[in-house]
Each structure stands twice: as C-alpha cells, then as structure tokens.
C-alpha cells in the first residue's frame, strides 16, 4: 500500500462526548472523516472541486474496530491513508492513536463517486484519485455484510424526523446521525453497561430533510458474544444496516 | 471589569456547520462554552472539583449578537471573561473574532451554582469564583426577557424525544439541542433565506433523557424587523424560551 498518509492531532471536545465522558461512535467517525477532508483539502481535492466537476464522494461502508473510546479532553492522533482503488471503489483506512502511540480505534471505509446529475455511481476520475498516490487494483474487496435483522419480535424501534441541521455542508445527512439513531434505539442501561468493540455499517440509500426514519435494533444475547443488529428505514426503503459487537463496560 | 481573560483558537469543523456551510447557532454556543471550560480547567475549577463539592454550574440565560456566522474551516479566536458576580449569579462574556480581529459574535451569559442534592440554586462559593478574579457586585443585572409567545394560531410545532447522546458529560441536555429544537421548528425556506442576528434564550427547567419536548415557534413579520419567538415545553412545563432577530440572507 503506497497511499499518502496524513495525520493530525485532535483534542476531544466536550460536545463530542456523551454522559459517560467518552466520544460517541458517530463523533469518532466524524473525527476520522475530518482527517480525510483535511488531507483532501491539502492535496487540492476539495469538496468544491469535486462538486464543480459534477460529483460528490459518498460512503458506502465503514468497518470499525474500537479498543478504547477516547475520553473528554484527551489528545489523539488521527491518521488516514487512501489505500487503494479500482474502477468504482476507493478504500481508505483510518487509525486513532493515543498520545503515547497506543492504537485506540481503526476504521476501513469504502467510498464511491456519485454523479450528481444522474444520481448514479460514476467511474473514479483519475484527477480526483491521483493526488493520493493510492494503489490501483483490479480487485473488488469482498467485505463482510452487516448481519441481518430477522426476528420481528423483540425489535426495539424509535422514530426520528430528519432535521434541518442534520444536513451537513456536503448536503448529506451527516454520519453522526445514523449512528445516533442506531444507538439511541438501544436502552440506556445497555449503553451504560457495554462498550462498543466492533461495528459494520453499510449505507444503501440516502435519507433527506423532512424524512421520518425508523431505527430498529435487536439485542442478540443468544451467542457467547454480545451483539446488536440495526436497521434505518424510511416508510418503504431500507436505508442503512449495521451490526455491532460489545463487551461489558468495566 | 477585572476578570481574567482567556482566549483560544478554534478551527471550525465540518460537523459544526449546516448545509449553508456556516456554524449552527447551537455549535457557536458550544464553541464559546468550550473556551470557558478550558479556562476553568486551567484555573483548577474543573467540573470534577465542582461536582466533588456537591455542585454544578447551570446556565440560566444567553444574550447572543451575531455579526457574521463563522464559516467551515475558518479559524476563529474565542475570548471569554468571567466579568462579575453577586451572591447568586455569575456573569460571563464571550467574543468570537476572525483571524484579522473582526468581531463576528458576542455573548453575555448568566450562570448559577446548583446544589446537586437539594436541586436548588446555591450561594456562589468563594473558592469556585476567586480563581477568575471577577468583580463582586451587589447588583443583580436586569436583563431583557425573551419575548412571549402569545398567539396560538400560526405557531409551528415539532416534537422531539431527548436521546441518550443529547446528555453531555455534564449530565445535562447539551445546549446545542435546545437551539436545534428551536431552529428546526422553523421552515427550511426561512432558515435558508435569513441570518440570525440576535438571540435571547432563557432556561427555566431542565429536560431529561426520554422526555418528549415540543418546540413551538412563531414568525413575527408584523414589525419592521424579522423576529421569531420560541418555546420548548414538556407536557406540563415551559422549559426554555427565546426570541430571535433575523436579517435577509445575502
């Protein structure tokens, strides 16, 4: 892998944490995405440039591993690398490290280029990928799918209306809201007593301002592992799925 | 005024902005509150220390003036000063300036000390205020009240359930959510076509995890000025009121 690496410091702000004084998973992803935006700006591949060409980057999947959630006021190092790409997909890695170099979290993400007029996935434009020095590959990665939500019994549901300020400067519902919707569907006792270790989230369909989404969550205690399975649905469409692994909170 | 001044740089992060690429008012307030938390930590008046004594700081009112909302990626200077206090109230000022010293926004805020066991306002403890070198005054400031929402006609309403991640590390519903609830009750066309210039927000009663709040907003176009009036209510309680002044978006 020869993609250019980029790193930046980030001090965890109080409004990136929840009542446990740890970063929320949505904000963890935001902090990582910030590093990739800052790298892109530094390399001249700004959102404005991409938009000017009639395109936009869209995330289709994140695979997240968390060793320890960063804490309020903690200084962390965020490292990212646009590792490789093929005709349609770009693969990017992220790492969050503590001040003394301990790996706290990592993430592997899949990006596609969306043609804004056709609303269809476009072939990766050389001028938008070359600045990152990523490896071209013929292979399409076969990433694991999030587990499916099967049982309709015992599924916890909550409804949310997409708000004006949920739409970020990229004109998408910001990532953080999908995570918040998914997590908030779990009981507070569960969230207080468990730490998120792994999450596989896959985006299928965009949601828009004013849409009402239903967040559906199932807690699977049958296995030896503690798992949760999640769906975000609008009335007729499955928009986003995820599965998570947890350990008891120390 | 002799309170110690504190200033810090802040670069506007993409997740602090909305689709207009400008900071949301809730995040503007968060960015200012961050400076006061950082000052307090530097002076040893940490949240932990205040909590250890059985107290917590609670905001009762913000008066906000905005000349220009900071934009995505903009570097700003945040300045704060714990200006003065009397037996029960602390008054703090905030300024946000652009890199070349232009004042973008200011805020005057009122804090009280809450006895966590009695859930009542307590007298300001000398050890919690002395580090700031604020002026003691006998005067209680007579700040303007937010305008009252009178008309029941034409009041726009939306309901929100307080989410797990709305509760921040201070165990309160983070400020940003009150602002988001208030703003989101306005139509998107209004938010896109106007800039917020002034806001007077007063907190009356805390809301808690799981509460459903109703955000009520009235757009007053009768006057020469463009005004909005806001309420946040739980079923039986008026929790927060605000009034805003706007100008057409350039």
TrEMBL record, chains A, B:
Superkingdom of source: Bacteria
Query: One Pfam family, short name please?
Result: Acyl-ACP_TE_C
Annotated coiled-coil positions are: none
Q: Which residues form the Acyl-ACP thioesterase-like C-terminal domain?
A: 152-246
Annotated keywords: Fatty acid biosynthesis, Fatty acid metabolism, Hydrolase, Lipid biosynthesis, Lipid metabolism, Transit peptide
Is Transit peptide among the key words of this record?
Answer: yes
Q: Where is the Acyl-ACP thioesterase N-terminal hotdog domain?
A: 3-132
Q: Does the keyword Lipid metabolism apply?
A: yes
Q: Which InterPro entries match?
A: Acyl-ACP_TE_C, Acyl-ACP_thioesterase_NHD, FATA/B, HotDog_dom_sf
GO molecular function annotation: acyl carrier activity; fatty acyl-[ACP] hydrolase activity
The record's family statement is: Belongs to the acyl-ACP thioesterase family.
- By what name is this protein known? Acyl-acyl carrier protein thioesterase
